[in-house]
Amino acid sequence: MIRLNHHRFQSQHSGDFRSVDESEKIVRKLVGAGEKEQFIFTSCGAEGVAHVMQSALFDHIYPTGKNHIITTNVEGADILLTHQRFEQMNICSHVVPVNSLGQLTPDILDLYASPRTALLSISWAHPLTGVVQPIWELAEYCKEHGILLHVNATEVLGRQYFELRDMPIDFLTFDGPIGSGGLFVKERLSPLIPTGDPQVLRGGTLNHEALSKLANWAQELMESRDHVCMETARLRRRFEMQFGEGLLCSSERLPTTCAVAFPGVSAEALLYYLENAGLSATIGGGDQQKLEYVLGNCGVDLIAARSAVSFCLSSKTTSDEIDRAVSIIQKELMKLEKIAGSLLEEADV
User: Fold this and answer.
1) Which of 174, 186, 190 is nearest to 57 (CA)?
2) Per-residue confidence at 342, pLDDT binned at 50, 70, 90?
3) What's the Cα-to-Cα distance from 75 to each of 53, 95, 105, rounded to whole Å?
4) Cβ pair 96, 124 in contact under 8 A
């Protein structure tokens, strides 16, 4: 099986069992956190999102009366469903559109933000299209207008360089290996899980083993980051050149990810054939919106969106695997085109 779609949460790197202090130090280094940023270990990224949203509610929305929050129409379930829950509590949640490149810009944000806006919640990069949001620009806008900024950084870890200490981001969350995640916060926030110790921001027993695995995973990402940002990016471009006309969302993207349309072919059918041929790809679903809906929200033509498949390389992807993947895709496309031709002939008869 050629797994261009490398699942970052299934890291095989075990490493030594690390102390709590050492583990936290490594995770901090991954995101470039300074002394001001507090780190909270979570069971997953969704817990971090829930913690941010609850904190925003109790620490900012209720005290200030600013009861308007914003997110985008291409987010995953963790953010969108939390926003829907807030609407049940008379909080105005606004799901705003992205542009044709799949990005939320300050100009778009300015159309929907108001003096009542308390929080913008957004993913730094999209896991299916690879589109990277202009976080620096959005962060400056939020800072200027007194809006808290929550960023889900899951997709950019190990794929981009940044220093959280230098960025006006109020909350940063991410998913880690199964059973782990993290939340960095610049100011103190209310605990999601209540605790009797005011210095503890997450109640319950700390899972030392999961935290240690998170640190090992973070170390692995840092060790491969140079390779991913240079060599993997080169391989992604090599892959895209074979299907250039079908490349979608060609704005700034992760060095690992692209979405390609194959007009005249059903994405679900192609995905089935690719999996049977030993090539792993995805069209979304589950915790993420389906790719066709994400692309539709970016203004992509419906026919192209329904024929699109997402591919994601890993740090271990090789040139030979890229060539084999291209060969498999071309071969399976020919099969589907032949089937479609036969069906048309039968219909004419």
Assistant:
1) 190
2) low
3) 15, 9, 15
4) no
**Chain segment 295-340, per-residue pLDDT in tens:** 999 999 999 999 999 999 999 999 999 999 999 999 999 999 887 6
* pTM of the predicted model over 0.85: yes
336/51 Cα distance (integer angstroms): 46
Q: Which residue has the tokens 């914003």?
A: 70
Among 149, 214, 217, 218, smallest CA distance to 186 is for 149
Query: How many DSSP H helices and E strands does the chain contain?
Result: 12, 12
Q: Yes or no: say if 182 and 154 are a contact pair by the CB < 8 Å rule.
A: no
Q: Which two tokens stand for residue 129?
A: 């299209």
pLDDT exceeds 70 at position 48: yes
* Token code pair at residue 119: 């929080």
- Four-residue CA torsion sign, 108, 111, 115, 120: negative
Q: Is 43 helix (H, G, I), strand (E, B) or coil?
A: coil
Place of tokens 């997953």: 44
Q: Which domains does the chain have, with CATH numbers?
A: 8-219 (3.40.640.10), 224-342 (3.90.1150.10)
Q: What is the DSSP secondary structure assignment for residue 200, as one 8-state letter? A: -
The whole-angstrom separation of Cα 274 and Cα 267 is 10
From the list 13, 6, 1, the residue with the least C-alpha distance to 316 is 6
Q: In 10 A of CB 243, how many CB atoms?
A: 18
Rounded to whole angstroms, the Cα distance separating 183 from 126 reads 19
